[in-house]
From TrEMBL:
Residues 371-392 are annotated as: Disordered. Residues 7-109 form the Acyl-CoA dehydrogenase/oxidase N-terminal domain. Its cofactor is FAD. This is Alkylation response protein AidB-like acyl-CoA dehydrogenase. It comes from Kitasatospora viridis. InterPro entries: Acyl-CoA_Oxase/DH_mid-dom, Acyl-CoA_Oxase/DH_mid-dom_sf, AcylCo_DH-like_C, AcylCo_DH/oxidase_C, AcylCoA_DH/ox_N, AcylCoA_DH/ox_N_sf, AcylCoA_DH/oxidase_NM_dom_sf. Keywords: FAD, Flavoprotein, Oxidoreductase.
Length: 392
């Protein structure tokens, strides 16, 4: 990537998003900001240069997430989903699909969304949405519970079962057979829509509209679960929140008694330390360093994984926004410039989306513990009537 591209996106995020939000309702689709990001090349960052993109490194793409996370999470979500889908089309698309879509995706003329999750589904093999071939055409039936940018995306990559494969169908949401549900009420991540999408006999071309062609299985790619973008977004938000709190608290510090100044400094130090560790974790993910020569074997330095970084940074962000709001007092909760409140509400979603932190932690624990030998003495507890009724 060229540094100036990233610099321009950083400048946009720091100078244009705040004034835009001050002048527009937070729950309105930010078309002017999306157009500016397209002009700045953000939508083409993960598209190869031969298709008109910037082919930016993984690190620089993460930095886009960081800058937009500083500014406004919904915009970061829209762009990072699109960039992941650029990679999917680039890696799995047929030559015709790459030719057809990547240029338009790079220019931001075709913004993509992804519809994978169905409530209660933990593995692609359990998906209930079906792609069924009927001679020369195929049809899609089912529903997806939460789709970011459902209302404004030009195409939605819908993950469905077809025989034993999890396939990706490129759906035009404006065609018959697609119903976009009402906006889902939520505390944050407003502006970019979030809705259920249902498919009833949606007809498509089984070769042209299935990523990689009919029966091309995406299971491995779905399970790979790179959650780097959520870490970048969390660190961006934490940096913005810390800066906000420092500015606000510093302004009023001189009027406080010496005792209170001391207490506030301590709390501010705690906040700054948490954000510093978040940044360190993120940098360890982006720039893994081999262990230094002579590292004693009893002090191994395992590489940072995207799962560990996501869990740590999105969870720590919850403390950071809460503690920053407390330090700013009434103005931390209610103020004309409610940037802190917005970060607070948006942050709540980050431990849940992508892959829930608890799911990632369970996998990390499983790796630590290794396979468990079957124990013939172990018994499966019989559910009591109370636990049975709770589960139903
Ligand atoms: C704002 C927002 C935007 C979204 N955008 C999209 C989108 O664009 N496209 C899309 O496809 N999806 C999207 N989603 C869906 C999102 O990715 C899922 O909600 C998320 O992956 C969690 O799945 P679930 O809701 O089915 O939770 P569940 O799988 O039901 O999990 C709920 C909780 O149960 C516990 N749990 C479940 N499984 C385990 C386990 N194995 N180990 C330990 N604990 C466990 C955890 O505490 C977990 O948080 C979005 C959701 C939100 C809220």
């Amino acid at each position: 990537m060229d540094d100036t591209g990233l610099d321009r996106i950083a400048q946009f995020a720091r100078q244009e998003i705040g004034p835009y939000l001050a002048a527009h309702p937070e729950d309105r689709y930010p078309l002017p900001l999306v157009r500016r990001l397209a002009q700045l090349g953000a939508f083409g960052a993960a598209v190869p240069t031969q298709h008109g993109g910037g082919d930016w490194s993984r690190r620089d793409i993460a930095l886009i997430g960081y800058e937009l996370g500083r500014g406004w999470q919904p915009l970061a979500g829209l762009v990072s989903t699109h960039l992941k889908l650029c990679r999917q089309v680039s890696e799995h698309g047929t030559p015709q699909q790459r030719e057809r879509w990547l240029g338009a995706m790079a220019r931001g003329e075709s913004v993509f969304a992804r519809a994978y999750h169905e409530q209660g589904i933990a593995h692609p093999a359990q998906l209930r949405t079906r792609a069924i071939r009927r001679g020369r055409v195929a049809v899609l039936d089912g529903r997806k519970s939460w789709v970011t940018n459902a209302r404004n995306a030009d195409r939605v990559l819908v993950i469905a079962r077809s025989g034993n494969a999890a396939v990706g169908v490129l759906v035009d949401p404006g065609r018959p057979g697609v119903t976009i549900g009402p906006e889902l009420p939520r505390p944050g991540l407003l502006g970019v829509s979030l809705a259920e999408i249902a498919f009833a006999d949606y007809e498509f071309d089984p070769e042209d509209d299935v990523l990689g062609g009919w029966d091309h299985d995406l299971t491995q790619s779905l399970l790979a679960n790179d959650v780097t973008s959520y870490t970048a977004r969390a660190v961006g938000s934490a940096d913005a929140v810390l800066e906000h709190a420092v500015r606000f608290v510093r302004d009023g510090l001189a009027h406080r008694s010496a005792d209170v100044q001391g207490a506030i400094r301590l709390r501010m130090g705690e906040l700054a330390a948490k954000v510093a560790v978040m940044r360190t974790v993120w940098h360890a993910l982006l720039d893994p360093r081999p262990p230094a020569d002579g590292t004693p074997p009893e002090a191994p330095n395992p590489p940072m994984t995207s799962a560990v970084a996501k869990v740590f940074c999105t969870a720590t962000l919850q403390d950071v926004v809460r503690e920053a709001a407390t330090l700013c007092g009434g103005a931390g909760y209610a103020a004309a410039d409610h940037a802190l409140g917005r970060h607070y509400r948006d942050a709540l979603a980050l431990p849940i989306i992508g892959a829930p932190n608890d799911v990632l932690l369970s996998r990390i624990g499983e790796r630590e513990l290794g396979p468990v030998a079957a124990d013939s003495h172990a018994t499966t507890p019989t559910p009591t009537p109370a636990t049975t009724s709770k589960a139903t």
